[in-house]
Design goal:
Elements lengths: L20 H20 L8 H20 L7 H13 L5 H5 L5 E5 L4 E5 L2 E4 L7 H12 L12 E5 L5 E5 L9 E5 L8 H6 L5 H12 L4 E5 L5 H9 L8 E5 L11 E5 L13 H8 L6 E4 L6 H10 L6 E5 L3 H14 L6 H11 L2 E7 L5 E13 L2 E11 L4 E4 L5 H7 L5
Parallel strand pairs: 7-11, 7-12, 8-9, 8-10, 10-11
Antiparallel strand pairs: 1-2, 1-6, 2-3, 4-5, 5-6, 12-13, 13-14, 14-15
């Protein structure tokens, strides 16, 4: 991949400056100088960014008068903005966090920062001064959340107040310096029109999924990381009837359901003493006592799978979840494996029967090498025959022609439930 980062224009700043060692040293000295003046004048913790901007600009001019004979750099305004990011924001990350086109921010040590835009990873020209600089920003992110990271706790998963998810790993586990991954939260969820315009599905597929959601089919959305599982779940949720009570369970609250009657539950990690953890399974068991019409589990990945399948089989029709898998067949296999790992004492055939009776559809999503996200398969789950779960592919994406093909017709049982939208 060619490095085009020098030509990137960021929406909230001047032209990004490729930082060399001399500029980083200048920023470090200027930062120390300004911080000392702010603390001496009692301004450090009393003002918001806009109020501080004038003071920081004045102190920066004083610094250059004293040290460089009033020779001010051409990127003076950019330096002031970067200083403000260090003082009241998240340093080199602040501009990326403010950029609405950035979906993910990936930091591999102090010198390598990548972002994802429209499914494509690109290296950016910003960098940190050293490992301690990265660590300071990570700790600033975690401080309002009551979380900590150090040698005794070198990994952390958390959610920022704006809904963005962060994962940090520091030495000694991270060999090349502190690593930080930020999955940004989109304030405005993607709607069905956007998915259709982007070629994520065909109109016929949309009609089928809409009918399935309204008819309270139990749906599992499968795919890899970043393939669009949560986005599709949000889109399907708009077809839930307004009178239904929906309970959502997530590790990090990302769902933006448009149904009016929603109860949102979020798991809690253990504290520094290893106490107080609340798992998805704990929340799912409690949700069953909350009179839900539907349960939406953000991600199935552990013992909660057994309780979710039982809920789908005992009156909570229209429930949905996501799962990490590379194909619909892999998704069903993973469900079997997770049920077995709960210690559930049953035969393999009975577990398959539980899955087959619980689920109506498996929807497989994928991110193509171009960055485009598509639904690759819509698969109906039918029953168990000869010890295997029988499935039927209703739609499949054709990479060669970049279109979607209707493969088989749905079963009589599913057609009776949702109606057949294909002539």
């Amino acid at each position: 991949m060619s490095d085009m980062t020098d030509a990137i224009v960021w929406p909230h700043r001047e032209l990004a400056i490729q930082e060399d060692e001399s500029r980083l040293e200048l920023k470090a000295e200027l930062h120390r100088f300004v911080i000392e003046r702010l603390e001496d004048d009692g301004l450090m913790y009393e003002m918001e960014r806009q109020e501080l901007q004038g003071y920081v600009h004045d102190y920066a001019r004083i610094y250059f008068k004293q040290h460089q004979g009033a020779h001010f750099p051409q990127d003076m305004n950019a330096l002031v903005n970067e200083l403000l990011d260090e003082i009241v924001g998240f340093g080199p990350l602040q501009n990326l966090l403010d950029d609405p086109d950035v979906d993910d921010i990936l930091i591999n040590g102090p010198k390598l920062i990548y972002v994802e835009r429209q499914g494509q990873l690109t290296k950016v020209p910003f960098r940190f001064m050293n490992d301690q600089h990265v660590l300071r920003v990570i700790r600033r992110m975690l401080a309002p959340l009551g979380r900590r990271i150090d040698e005794a706790n070198p990994m952390v998963d958390a959610r920022l107040p704006n809904g963005s998810r962060i994962n940090a790993v520091i030495p000694p586990l991270a060999i090349d310096g502190p690593c930080l991954s930020v999955r940004k939260f989109k304030a405005e969820s993607i709607d069905i029109d956007t998915l259709l315009q982007n070629g994520a599905m065909s109109v016929a597929m949309h009609q089928l999924l809409m009918r399935c959601a309204r008819s309270r089919c139990n749906v599992l959305i499968s795919g890899s990381t970043g393939s669009g599982k949560t986005t599709l779940l949000n889109v399907l949720s708009q077809y839930i009837n307004a009178g239904e009570r929906v309970v959502t369970i997530e590790d990090a609250a990302e769902l933006q359901l448009r149904n009016g009657h929603v109860v949102r539950l979020e798991t809690r990690p253990p504290n520094s003493e290893g106490q107080g953890e609340v798992t998805p399974r704990d929340l799912l068991k409690n949700a069953l006592r909350m009179r839900p019409d539907r349960i939406i589990l953000g991600e199935s990945r552990g013992g909660e799978v057994l309780d979710m399948l039982q809920a789908m089989n005992t009156g909570h029709q229209g429930s949905m979840s996501t799962l990490h898998a590379n194909s619909p067949q892999d998704a069903l296999l993973r469900l079997e494996m997770m049920v077995t790992m709960t210690g559930f004492s049953s035969t393999e055939v009975l577990i398959k029967q539980m899955i087959a009776t619980a689920l109506d559809l498996v929807i497989q999503v994928a991110r193509l090498p171009s960055g485009r996200r598509v639904i690759t398969h819509i698969v109906e789950i039918q029953d168990v025959a000869d010890g295997q779960i029988r499935t039927q592919v209703l739609y499949a994406y054709q990479p060669a022609g970049e279109d979607f093909r209707a493969v088989d017709g749905m079963s009589a049982a599913l057609r009776e439930k949702v109606g057949d939208d294909r002539e």
